[in-house]
Amino acid sequence: MFDRTTLPYGVFSKAGGPKRIGVAVEDGVLDLAANLGSRFAEGSLNAFMAEGPASWAEVRSRVTELAQTADLVRDVELHLPFEVADYVDFYASEQHATNLGKMFRPDGEALLPNWKHLPVGYHGRAGTVVVSGTDIVRPSGLTLPGPSYRPSAKLDVEVELGFVVGVGSELGKPCRTGDFADHVFGVVILNDWSARDIQSYEYVPLGPFLGKSFATSISPWVVPLAALDRVPAPAQDPEPAAYLQVDGDWAIDLTLELSRNGEVVSRPPFAGMYWTGPQMLAHLTASGASLRTGDLFASGTVSGDEVDQRGSFIELTWNTSFLDDGDVVTISATTASGRYLGEVSGRVAAASRS
Ligand code: CA
């Protein structure tokens, strides 16, 4: 349950009524349209997120006061909190990239030569980002042996954090790492569902495609940057290019928790991620690519040093065991001090008949 200080934003409705913007407070929701006016009677956070950091700070200050005294709404339905513009997924955990490198290239270097020079990423599918609670239909695709078109036998999860862009940028003008807090509104907990058998057959030479495009689940509550705890990031060696250098402490100090059917299977720590959010933002725009309100860029699978800190089943079971139909997977997050930051959940549904 959220406390009275985190105050994440989401979109809710009650008994089939209209969607409105709300803030989670303990076991209830603060209705912003009722308390702060009709600009919050919206079906997505996009317009509010586009207003920028001065407006975010002002509203958060009002919400902090209201959260102590205002009436809360209960028994609400939660919706996808923002319209996703573009979706990018990075690969920022050294431990995860090393584990997968060892599995897929047992005779080569675990980390490819570019990995410590730039945050490796790819563009994903924005239209299949779904809110927590949405069933995930087991994907089908061409897999070996054959290849034959069949339901995936290696359906997996990836425990990630997603950064949500509020303020866009100009085409042709890269963002600097120092611009991060001017553009990024907050974070969601994210599950990048992955079909390992589809992925391993299709990915050469252009990277992930259908093995990851069928669904990406996000938490219904977007935690504002102001509610996160930050600590120094791990040292980087070699020193990154100038456009990737960062001032300030930008490692986010939270621990994710992965559960399958109610049983905790790992607790990946986020603060140890090699690449930080500001570096991902600078790299994403380094070519001059612009940002739009609602862009979502995810961290990549979060894995720590220990076996019980790995953020995917392919790492936890070393490519031997994956999800069954009916399994419910939940990823939650808490700060180092134990403050709850939300969760994302999804149930695996049987493959469609093909
Ligand atoms: Ca991923």
Short description:
The protein contains nine helices and 23 strands. The protein has about 350 residues and is α+β, with helices and mostly antiparallel strands. Strands 5, 6, 7, 12, 13, 15, 16 and 21 form an eight-stranded mixed sheet that branches. A five-stranded mixed sheet has the order 8-23-22-19-20, with no helix packed on it. Strands 3-2-1-4 form a four-stranded antiparallel sheet.
Description of the molecule:
The chain has 354 residues and is α+β, with helices and mostly antiparallel strands. The chain has two domains: 71 residues, Fumarylacetoacetase, N-terminal domain (SH3 type barrels), CATH 2.30.30.230; 263 residues, Alpha-Beta Complex (Fumarylacetoacetate hydrolase, domain 2), CATH 3.90.850. 18% of the residues lie in helices and 28% in strands. Strands 5, 6, 7, 12, 13, 15, 16 and 21 form an eight-stranded mixed β-sheet that branches. A hairpin with a 4-residue loop joins strand 22 and strand 23. The longest helix is centred in the first third of the chain and has 17 residues. The radius of gyration is 20 Å and the shape is globular. The site of calcium ion has 6 residues, from loops.
Secondary-structure blueprint of this entry?
Layout: E1 9-13, E2 20-25, E3 28-31, H1 32-36, H2 46-50, H3 53-69, E4 77-79, E5 87-90, H4 94-104, E6 121-123, E7 129-131, E8 136-137, E9 140-143, E10 148-151, E11 155-156, E12 159-165, H5 180-183, E13 184-191, E14 194-195, H6 196-202, H7 210-213, E15 216-218, E16 223-224, E17 230-231, E18 251-252, E19 254-260, E20 263-266, H8 277-284, E21 296-298, H9 313-316, E22 328-335, E23 340-349
Parallel strand pairs: 5-21, 7-15, 8-23
Antiparallel strand pairs: 1-2, 1-4, 2-3, 5-6, 9-10, 11-14, 12-13, 12-21, 13-15, 13-16, 17-18, 19-20, 19-22, 22-23
